[in-house]
Automatic annotation (TrEMBL):
It holds the Pfam family Exo_endo_phos_2. This is PHD-type domain-containing protein. It comes from Parnassius mnemosyne. GO terms for biological process: cell adhesion involved in heart morphogenesis; larval heart development. Residues 50-96 are annotated as: Disordered. Residues 72-83 have a biased composition (Low complexity). One of its GO terms (cellular component) is extracellular matrix. PANTHER family: REVERSE TRANSCRIPTASE DOMAIN-CONTAINING PROTEIN, TRANSCRIPTASE, PUTATIVE-RELATED-RELATED. SUPFAM superfamilies: DNase I-like (SSF56219), FYVE/PHD zinc finger (SSF57903). Residues 147-181 form a coiled coil. Residues 50-71 have a biased composition (Polar residues). One of its GO terms (molecular function) is zinc ion binding. Residues 1-58 form the PHD-type domain. Keywords: Coiled coil, Metal-binding, Zinc, Zinc-finger.
Length: 494
């Protein structure tokens, strides 16, 4: 039986065997790191001269004649070169086991010796492991100390950050409170400043005597007033003050501040606010007796249409205007409507020498709706004063253009606004001027209309029979109105 010196296993295949030329020991080629491929490439001469790894290490590398070893008498007398060779036992590398060398020598014959060698190798391995574990332990202790230090620093930094956050929160709350106070004070100061300097528009009536030129009626559009401002803070006791702040007209508004109307009338003239004439929009109606034996009155409306002008808002305002002008204003009185309508795209042009300005064509839907309504109510526009943008936002609408004259105020009561120049409206003597309407026209009162009866009659109409002999749309429309309007007139009082 042939045994491999390296693995101590039996060699069954001679083709995978290689013999040492010196020690005559047998090895598996794979046990000494020679692959089958390389073994086949080796020639017979190479195989015959091959030596195992242990044999070259045992052969002296030279005669060591230059080794500084003192020769003894016996050694010198021998005269051999090998007497000068220093035979030292090679120091075993740390952790290197001597088992392969012992196994290769073939000198072990008992299991007790093998056990001792294994125990010695395990002790050496355990000693190395313990040394490495001690080093790791010391590094872990150092890392633990570092982590403790960093944790203390982090806790200290975290406490400082929390303190700073609390301070920032306190300062932020204080800043918010101060900001609210500043906003309230600024708003109040702006209101007081606007009211102290009075108005955008001033209206002059008939003076008391020849040399007197006192403002009789003071009107301010977009007054910015609220419940915190009292009437006596606006003007002195010579005036009756009529106000409609935005807080009372929030039906169409999302902003609670801004807007509003203010009208002040000298107490010499009897003035009465007409609350029943006012809609949910920002408008203020006041009926003023000019002192001509109560013969003539001016029904004055101050209006403000906030931008951007919405269709619903303008429709509500115009419908109410039509109702007031046609149903509520008495005969023998005049209508004067002054307001900021914020319709800058309407271009007004003069018609000859008359004190009237008409709009140019080709306007938008909102503008055309406004123009149609004031034309229907026989109101004329008399203001021609342009603002800094060469547009007219403040309109003066009257039913008789002969009673007023509009000019730019020479001594405005307020600081000039680039969008709203101060206007002076002079009302001529009304003694020789007749009102536009000497007789009221009976108009349908649709608020008392019997809509149920109208609907009942309309449901019984068979329109296919009504239009059976008609073939063009114009004739059908005429037939439609000819059928519907008599039914409405039948059930609507005048």
């Amino acid at each position: 039986m042939i045994t491999c010196v390296a693995c101590l296993n039996e060699i069954h295949n001679n083709s995978g065997r290689i013999d040492c030329a010196r020690c005559k020991q047998y090895y598996h080629n794979l046990c000494i790191n020679i692959s089958d491929k390389n073994l086949k490439k080796m020639s017979d001469t190479q195989k015959a001269s091959w030596q195992c790894p242990n044999c070259p290490s045992k052969q002296p590398r030279g005669d060591n004649t230059n080794t500084p070893v003192k020769q003894t008498a016996s050694s010198s007398s021998s005269g051999t070169a090998s007497s000068n060779v220093t035979t030292r036992k090679a120091t075993k590398a740390a952790g290197e086991s001597s088992i392969p060398q012992v196994l290769s020598s073939g000198a072990l014959t008992s299991s007790a010796e093998i056990r001792d060698i294994i125990n010695e190798a395990l002790r050496e391995w355990a000693t190395g492991i313990c040394t490495q574990l001690n080093e790791i332990r010391s590094e872990v202790v150092s890392l633990k100390d570092s982590m403790s230090f960093f944790n203390e620093q982090f806790e200290q930094l975290n406490a400082e950050v929390k303190a700073q956050k609390a301070e920032v929160r306190r300062l932020s709350d204080e800043n918010s409170s101060l900001r609210r106070d500043v906003i309230n004070l600024t708003t109040h100061c702006n209101q007081m400043d606007q009211m102290s300097r009075a108005v955008n528009l001033e209206l002059q009536c008939v003076p008391e005597h020849k040399n007197e030129n006192v403002t009789r009626i003071v009107q301010q559009l977009e007054s910015w007033l609220n419940d915190t401002v009292f009437d006596h803070e606006l003007l002195d006791a010579r005036y009756d003050i009529f106000r409609r702040d935005r807080s009372s007209t929030l039906s169409f508004q999302t902003k609670k501040e801004g807007g509003g109307i203010c009208l002040a009338v000298l107490k010499k003239y009897r003035a009465l606010r007409m609350n029943r004439w006012e809609s949910a929009c920002e408008e203020l109606w006041v009926s003023i007796d000019l002192g001509l034996n109560n013969k003539y009155r001016i029904n004055m409306c101050a209006a403000y249409i906030p931008p951007p002008v919405s269709r619903d808002y303008l429709t509500t305002f115009l419908n109410n205007l039509t109702d007031v002008v046609n149903n509520k204003i008495s005969n023998g009185s005049f209508t004067l409507l002054v307001g900021d309508f914020n319709l800058p795209y309407i271009v007004w042009e003069s018609i000859g020498d008359q004190n009237v300005y008409i709009p140019e064509p080709n306007n938008g839907t909102i503008e055309n709706m406004f123009i149609d309504e004031i034309t229907f109510n026989n109101l004329k526009q008399c203001n021609y004063i342009l603002n800094d943008n060469n547009r007219i936002l403040d309109l003066v609408l009257v039913d008789n253009a002969n009673i007023v004259k509009v000019a730019e105020a020479s001594l405005p009561l307020v600081g000039l606004d680039p969008h709203h120049p101060a206007l002076e409206i002079l009302i001529h003597s009304l003694g020789n001027i007749k009102p536009c309407r000497s007789k009221r026209v009976a108009l349908p009162n649709y608020s008392k209309c019997n809509f149920d009866a109208i609907n009942e009659e309309l449901t019984h109409i068979v329109w296919s029979e009504v239009w059976s002999d008609l073939y063009d749309i114009d004739s059908m429309v005429d037939k439609f109105y000819g059928t519907v309007l008599p039914i409405i007139k039948k059930h609507t009082p005048h």
